[in-house]
Amino acid sequence: MIALVLVLTVAMMVLPMPLLLVDLLIGFNLGFAVLLLMVSLYVLSPLEFSTLPGIILLSTVFRLALTITTTRLILTQANAGDIVRTFGEFVIAGSVLVGLVVFLIVTIVQFIVIAKGAERVAEVGARFILDALPGKQMAIDAELRNGDIDQAEARRRRGRLEQESQLYGAMDGAMKFVKGDAIAGLVVIVVNLIGGIAVGTLSRGMPFVQAVREYALLTIGDALISQIPALMLSITAATVVTRVTGDSKLDLGRDIAGQLSADRRALRLAAIVLLAMGLVPGFPTAVFVVLALAFGAASLVAGTRSTAGDEDAAISRDGMGAAADVRAGAPQRMREIRQAAPAEAPPVVILLSDNLRPIAETQNLRTKIDESRASLANTLGILMPDVGIVFDSSLGPSRFRIEVEGVPVEEAHADPQRLLLCDDPVNLELAGIPAQTDGDAKSSGQIWIDTVHESSLLAAGIGYQDCTDVVATRMREVLARNAARFIGIQETRALLTRLEGRYGDLVKEVTRTTPVQRMADVLRRLVDEGVSVSNPRLVLEALAEWGEREANVVLLTEYVRAALKRQICHKYANAHRIVPAYLIERAAEDTIRGAVRDTAVGPYLVLDDKVSEGLLDRVRRIGANAHSDHNRPVILTSMDIRRFVRGFLIRNGLDIPVLSYQELAGDFTIQPIGTIGLAGSFGSDSAPRSGSFPQGVVPAVG
């Protein structure tokens, strides 16, 4: 069909056409222009009408060929078909001057307003699309590296970018056809008028006035037949290039109607202004009243839709979790979280027995849990998840259970009528305050005191916790112990988004060298050992430096720990900036290093049973000698086996920090207080022989 149209276009330029065929072609030209305009209104994206530049070229050439045909008929036969004559008679309305003015107005509107504006929009759009193309391609590559999209989706997005750039570039050039078509229309009407008057007076012997009227009628009709489809084509092109789709999935009409009626206040104010204009003397009051009523009715419709949307939003907010119900103090709306959809349930949930309901309803428990979450977030540098609170009648009296991701991790006793002793029991005996250790309290070694003695405990300065404090303290311990579970790809991406404002270039470099899932794994490993990531710049700097060179996430974590050495040393140093440390002997390091086995799922430590027992015995003695969490000693070893030693101790229930020599900061003093070996006696608390220390570790003086 395209080939046939092009052949017909060339034929119209050189061959005479019968009047009936000319009328058919003119009607087709008008209908096709209307079709293009309707299509432009219903496309959801400019890319859905990507053939428009080619259509503009074909329709412009076809219309110009049709103008040549009608010009030949006007000059040779003084007749260009019924459509041309009817248009001329209708527009002229008995006056040639009126017809010329109408034609000039139509042409000026098309040329100066629509065609020129659409040309400028297409030009700027093409420039912006081409300028943004490298950045969009890099974003696609980054998402592909991070695993957010697969190869097929990446190819689809690249193809869409290529198509988009080609469309706007082609539209920039195609708008020159529309602009040139308007200029050609002005030239053709002048040529037809002069040529027609000359032919009529000189060749046909017509009087000058009759020649002017006859040929002006045909010329203006022909010009309008050409300019009206051209005007429609200009509007079509302008509609496509000015369309801003974004995430909208609506056609242009629905999009405009939705945005104009989004806020009913605007419609109501417009109705009031129209009503006020109707009161102006001389204005048609009835017209403005009708318009004001129409705008007011539209505001009512928009208000109904907005109310429905608000209700949907309220339902959505209500379904976010049961924690909001507790904060609002509305126990009758408390939902059973385990019956909610998995996406709605918070990762951490406290289940309370029925007699513990008052501590949740008074919001005191919620306040203390939020304080614990904020404290941990400040300490570890990560956001703690919200905690859901539900009631479970299956729990025994004064019992509570904590679940993390649907798995119970803690269950304990909390009596709302008693206080838990957090002090030396001897002080309780000296103060003469009776205590109880029955039931679960006796089996757990906890000592409980009736609440009537609270004033006596305060007067004696004896530490205690009420029921709310007991639950909140256990929750803090669970959150701290499971903090690494709350760091994933989503949280890591949110962290990078927050940091882009301050460290834009650094974030860009890190995402180029390190996938998001690897970053999330590094953060999980750091937080799992209690290393704070509250200084994300140092973490990102280390990832940017080592992310491309080190693919092993375990070793990458060790390099990040080395970058955080000042923070790590500060955590374990005393007030004099001294870090007490036990050193693993070189022979023991070699034994541990030789016991590492590489497998398909990664390396792991396989120690002989006798060696394991010897090592555990010595480390347990370190734990028994540590009295303060802040001043407790650390274990120092080489970087390549640090993680294996730490994992070995954790698996055997020994939570003692293990540092590598690369994590020792120069502005802190390391005080070796003993050595750990696999054979012989345990190192003394005095400084060991200098030969047993790795190079660079200097004992503290004094």
UniProtKB/TrEMBL annotation:
The molecule here is called Translocation protein
Q: Where in the cell is it found?
A: Cell inner membrane
Q: Which UniProt keywords apply?
A: Cell inner membrane, Cell membrane, Membrane, Transmembrane, Transmembrane helix, Transport
Predominant location category: membrane
Q: Does the keyword Ubl conjugation apply?
A: no
Which terms under GO biological process does the entry name?
protein secretion
- A single GO cellular-component term on record: plasma membrane
Task: Extract the InterPro entries matched here.
Answer: FHIPEP_1, FHIPEP_3, FHIPEP_4, FHIPEP_CS, T3SS_FHIPEP, T3SS_HrcV
**Organism name:** Bradyrhizobium valentinum
